[in-house]
Design a protein that fits this description.
Structural class: alpha/beta
Number of domains: 2
Number of helices: 11
CATH class of the largest domain: Alpha Beta
Strand order of the largest sheet: 1-2-3-4-7-8-9-10-11-12
CATH superfamily of the largest domain: Aldolase class I
Shape: globular
Radius of gyration: 21 Å
Bound molecules: S-adenosyl-L-homocysteine
Length: 352
């Protein structure tokens, strides 16, 4: 059996191998400590100190906390992590709401999709995250939420990176969240820029997770500009993949729409978007996100009245839209702002 890359990358069988000299229940104690109680290895005191030390040495963790930034009176916390290989910082956002706690996880260090309005896209791609690196973000954030006597109930794959360009690791993390941490699959949301083969793979996966598609434009010429991967997977193909997905899954898809002043917030855009949303059965739900500022994109977000007007236009056509409240803009933790403190170097993509 191959050696796992880190503590949170290890499967139960791999942990059993590392603990092979111990009674079998030790693996269960360790697993419960890690995933049900979200404890740090040193706090899993059902295991002896020498055993913990041995595990620490053989199976190191992956994330080193660099900085914790706090916003919204303590309700939004952004974690900046360094990865064990010393490069490529990533970020995770923990959001406390009155009735729930949500974690937004990164799936890649950086992103290769190059959407101009997104800070992660502006910074370029560094590398894929492993299952363990995705899982550890949630475990560490959960530990934090526990201190406030709250429990993580929702996970959104909406941090840095394109989840469906790293689908196997994302799915490994989904299984851990659902199977070991007890988070309902219906409370897991995978957001994609529209990677058609990834959507098709997701359709073959067993659990009823949510799919969100970052649409932002409902005609190809505009979407080619805003979301460059549209040139590879144009809207017709993307919608066919969504329809096929729905045929298998029958779970409502949502469309994300970052509202950019004068670019995608006109009556024409609303009508084109409504048409696409209504072409899916059940009709897609639309999430409107007023564009958050990023260093590399000068155009501003649509103002509140414009967003409202756009939402009304959609609802007049029978499409439900939610206006997403912005969290953590002052600490660069909101949608599209995660760049892990990297200065925006537009040539960085050359290093991929
Ligand atoms: N790559 C995936 C996951 C990232 S999710 C995806 O694109 O879906 C992050 C969401 O925030 C996406 O819907 C993205 O399009 C949106 N977003 C990116 N930049 C933004 C910005 N500056 N303001 C508001 N939303 C933004």
């Amino acid at each position: 059996m191959s050696r796992p890359r880190s503590l949170y990358d290890a499967t139960g069988a791999q942990l059993a191998e590392v603990l092979s000299g111990e009674p079998a229940y030790r693996v269960k104690q360790l697993w419960a400590g890690l995933y049900e109680q979200c404890k740090a290895l040193d706090d899993i005191t059902t295991l002896s100190a020498p055993l913990r030390a041995e595990l620490n040495e053989k199976l190191p963790t992956s994330l080193l906390l660099v900085r914790e930034s706090v916003s919204d009176k303590g309700d939004t916390i952004k974690f900046l992590w360094r990865l064990a290989d010393g490069h490529h910082p990533i970020e995770t956002v923990l959001m406390h709401y009155a009735d729930r706690v949500t974690v937004c996880v990164s799936t890649q260090a950086g992103c290769a999709m190059a959407c101009g309005f997104c800070a992660t896209g502006q910074a370029g791609f560094s590398r894929q995250l492993t299952v363990g690196e995705i899982v550890e973000q949630v475990v560490r954030a959960s530990r934090h939420a526990k201190q406030r006597k709250q429990r993580v109930a929702n996970i959104v794959f909406m941090g840095m990176g394109e989840p469906l360009a790293n689908e196997p690791a994302v799915w490994g993390a989904v299984e851990r969240f659902h199977g070991d941490m007890g988070i309902s699959a219906r409370h897991l949301t995978i957001s994609t820029v529209g990677i058609v083969p990834g959507i098709r793979t997701l359709a073959t996966r067993p659990l009823p997770v949510n799919l969100a598609v970052s649409l932002h434009a409902a005609r190809n010429d505009l979407r080619d500009d805003l979301v460059p991967i549209n040139k590879r997977y144009p809207l017709e193909e993307l919608m066919t993949a969504c329809r096929d997905y729905l045929r298998v899954k029958n779970r409502r898809i949502s469309f994300e729409w970052a509202m950019i002043a004068g670019v995608n917030d006109t009556a024409r855009d609303a009508s084109e978007l409504a048409k696409l949303a209504l072409s899916l059965k059940p009709t897609a739900h639309v999430n409107l996100i007023p564009l958050n500022p990023t260093p590399g994109f000068p155009t501003r977000g649509t103002d509140a009245a414009g967003v409202r007007r756009f939402a009304d236009r959609l609802s007049d056509r029978g499409v439900n839209a939610t206006i997403r409240r912005n969290r953590g803009t002052d600490i660069d933790a909101a949608c599209g702002q995660l760049a892990a403190g990297q200065p925006v170097v537009l040539t960085a993509r050359r290093n991929v």
